[in-house]
Sequence to fold (359 residues):
Amino acid sequence: MAAVVVLFATACGGDSKDTDTAASGPTASATGPGKGGAAGFPVKVTDCAGAETTFTEAPKKVVTSNASSLEMLFWLGAGDRVVGTGFPPGKGTMPAQFAAQADKVRVLGDMVIPKEQLLGSGADLYIDTFADMGGMGAMGSGPSAKEFAAAGIKHIYLKSTACATKRPGPQQDLSAVEADIKELGAVTGTSARADELVAGMEQTVGTVRTALAGVPQDRRPSYFFFDFDAGTKQPIAICGKQVANAVITQAGARNVFADCAGDFKPVAWEDVVAENPDWIQLGVRNKGSAEANAKAFDDAERFLRTFDATKGLNAVRDGRFVRIGSESTTIAGVRNAETVRRIASTIHPDLVRPAPAAG
Fold:
C-alpha cells in the first residue's frame, strides 16, 4: 500500500477505441436545459458501479483529490472554482501556464484529504481519483455517501484511474481519459472547451497511429517504465489497467508488464531481467527545474548501468533510455497525448517526428 501511495503522489482517438463503459463510461450526458435550469443541464454522471449523480447547475466550489483532476479543471478553464486539493502538485509539475494559479490552491491534505477537512471545506463537488481506496487504510476512512450528502457535496470520480481495476481488460488507448475530460466539461458547463481539448488529443495520437500503421504488433519494441522515485529495492510495474499502458501502447511499444493484474504491482528485478526490455523509460518525477530533472534522469540511468541485475539488459547496454517524467505518463490528463508523441518519436525516430518547438 505504501508503494501505491508513492505512485499516486506523482499527481499524485483512433479507429479502435476501448468501449468498456465501466472505465470510460457514457456517463456525462447533457440533456439540455431543464425547467429553470441553465443551458446544458441537467447532467447525469455515474460512478464505477453505475450509481447516478445529477447536476442541475455547474458547481461553484470544487475540491480535487489530487493534481490529476486539478490540472483537468485548469485546462477546462474552471480552475477558479477550486477551493482545495489533496496530493498538491509539486513544484514544476504543472504546465507553466497554470503554475501560478496552482500555487494559490489551498492544500487540504498533503496526501489523502482528512475526512473532517473535506466535509468542512465548503465545497459542493469533490472529484475523486482514488474511488474505492477510501482513506487508504491507516490514513482514515473517507466520508460515506450520507456524510457527503449532509455536507452538500456531490462526489464523482475520474474513471480512467478510479475505475481502472474494475476493467475487464487493459487500457490500450486514451478513450477513458478523454471521457473523463468530457465528463468534467459537462459537469462544469465547459463542454465546448472539453471537446476542443479531446479533439486536439485525438489529432496528436492519430498522427502517431497513422505513422506507425505499418509496424506489426510483434515488431514493436518491448518497454519497461522504471519508476526510480518509487525506490530501487523492488521495482513497481505499470500493469495493463494503468493509464501509462495506454500511453505506451499508442506510442508503438509493448509494455512488458501489461499482463499483470490491476494498475500497479511490485515485481522483482528478476522479472525485469527475464523480460529484457528493448527500451526503458526513466520515469522520474519533476524536481522543479531543468537542472534538477537532468540530474534525476542521470541518477536513474546510472543506477541501471551499475546495478548488477540490470547492467546487462539490452536497453541498458545499448543506451536505449526514454527521458520522460512520470506525471504526464502515469497521471490521466490532457498531456498524455503529447507524451504518446514524445515516446514514439524517441523509439521510432524514422517514423514519428517530435512536436515543433514552441514559438
Summary: The first helix runs from residue 2 to 8. The chain has 14 helices and 14 strands. Residues 1-37, 133-140 have pLDDT under 50 and may be disordered. Residues 4 and 36 are 45 Å apart (CA to CA).
